């Protein structure tokens, strides 16, 4: 069943998997989209979340995604991003082959983006297994991530669409869920199970019910599948997208002409849901920490978890922050001193042209502020 | 009893008292000192409170003080300020005679400052009545202020030291109090009363007791007195200060030599308290609104009162503030957008080199932050 066995996998505790442990048929697709509106004013139209270092690691989320995937994929990485961000992506990823930097003329959601990448890769490597991983997620424990992807690749080689299911940390209403079925019993992928169904973002009561069953995991949009299998599924459920993606892959000069005609749809709705209903989807559980850093509340929690304690977290120069009896998150971004007194769980984000102050538990409302910028004639701040 | 009668006074409801209503023997002394530390980062060593427009009126507190006094004093105004601020004061008050801009080589508190001004004025006008009014207070109802000063001048001409007593709006522990005695029965100053004693800033219980008696008013440091009477009192209770002030007034070149030897003491302790004990002090009640704008809590309350409503007050350009379900005070000072979400009664002050976020009810603690700037090696921000 390929290059990998389970003993090999469980030994792999070093995050920097040696090159000889890479998977020669594995290609990574990184959809680099999403504005990260709820992380304004840090995240902007021109500098979306994935281009930012949100963890203070010295690497942006996109770079960290690259770093996580290249031990497995080496240089077999494709990035799909908006045309406006293609230059920034190329700048951040000097190792990315320009032929696999796919610039979307307009946003068409994830299915056209992933289908195009799969079609481009399939022309180069008809037996490729592709794994799609968003550019703006944060993952702790890279070894566990590699282990999950290796299992997913093993299962994907059998012709299934494999999703990596995130172990829920609570009854979140912000994610869709995957309902697990029976174990597949694969020798080299012992934790893989069938998927009964994908379900949309639930309300809080439904989410709590899901968790109580122990059968549900978060759908983080991590899919591993043979490129040809994926294209077959797209051809079956969204034939126009398959045709368009393959036409562009065959003749890249047709991108601007064909792209706008592609249906704007997420991969979940386009193929994952109907494929699950047809019994064609499997899942591998993630044992690693995962965060999509959806808002400043999540970001503060993430930094708390990394620091191993709570308090006033600083994303940037701690010398620029003076916190007195205050907790939460300060992002100093201008070299100015940021003094915060007597506020628990507050978020203060200082940027050269905009300043945000919001309690952590209302961080979701940042999106509403961004929506109002246009009304106020401050569209340039978006 | 002088130029003014009570009918004349009660007619004076126009804040811009006509020039012919000025008091020819009245001289204003404006002590322009105090750092306003609790208003950091708006107020700085180099730009103290009195040099700032804290009400959005277009005039600084110093200029507003000048505007309030010149209808009564015309050009008979002396300003005493730190040497570091003399140029700024001259720039803000083009009408101020340079001979009456007194620059203190070092801070010696209010008694030496006022004694020096009184000595300088007495050499020019031996019959002068001087009135001392801090440069950093905010007063509503200028007509009522003028009425109170006119009464105080009437009483001062009789040889008493007269303080304008502020009607307390609550049991403040931030001010000293004046305890009123019997009415003086002066025809042209019907509301004047004897002063029984000055008392230091009380604790909260004592302040509440004071208010319950109805006999106490806040001491805002507004003194009106014949210049010669004041100098006599200083000579009696602080002879070295009187001697030094008169020596400097006689030969201004001696300022830098004599000034450092003067006792550092407030006028309250130096002469007002012992003079009251000797039965030499009277008080006139203030019926005007008064605020010393001690911190951002007071400033927000002041702006609320002026706006006639509560909400998010903005001191500066309202276009630079986006408040969603947030109240308090924002001072935008850099042209950046300041977005505040979901925080009641919060203060956000945005300046080019420092940013402050603090709940209104902890505004007093700003002083502690300023004290820490030195420890942190950020002394330049003070």
Tell me the strand order in the biggest sheet of chain A: 6-9-7-8-10
Helix content of chain A: 25-40%
> Using DSSP, what is the number of strands of chain A?
17
Q: What is the CATH topology assignment of the largest domain in chain A? A: Spore Coat Polysaccharide Biosynthesis Protein SpsA, Chain A
Give the assembly state of these chains. Answer: homodimer
CATH architecture of the largest domain in chain A: Alpha-Beta Complex
Radius of gyration of chain A: 21 Å
**Counting H and I runs of at least 4 residues, what is the number of helices of chain A?**
12
The residue ranges of chain A in which pLDDT falls below 50 over 5 or more consecutive positions are 1-17
CATH class of the largest domain in chain A: Alpha Beta
Given the C-alpha coordinates, what overall shape of chain A results? globular
Topology as H/E string of chain A? HEHEHEHEEHEEEHEHHHHEEHEEEEEEH
- CATH homologous superfamily label of the largest domain in chain A: Spore Coat Polysaccharide Biosynthesis Protein SpsA, Chain A
Structural domain count of chain A: 2
Most extensive interface, chain pair and sizes? A-B, 34 and 34 residues
The assigned structural class of chain A equals: alpha/beta
The overall average pLDDT of chain A, rounded, is 91
The biggest sheet of chain A, with number of strands, parallel, antiparallel or mixed sense and barrel status, is: 5 strands, mixed, barrel
For the termini of chain A, the CA-CA separation is: 49 Å
How large is the share of residues in beta strands of chain A? 15-25%
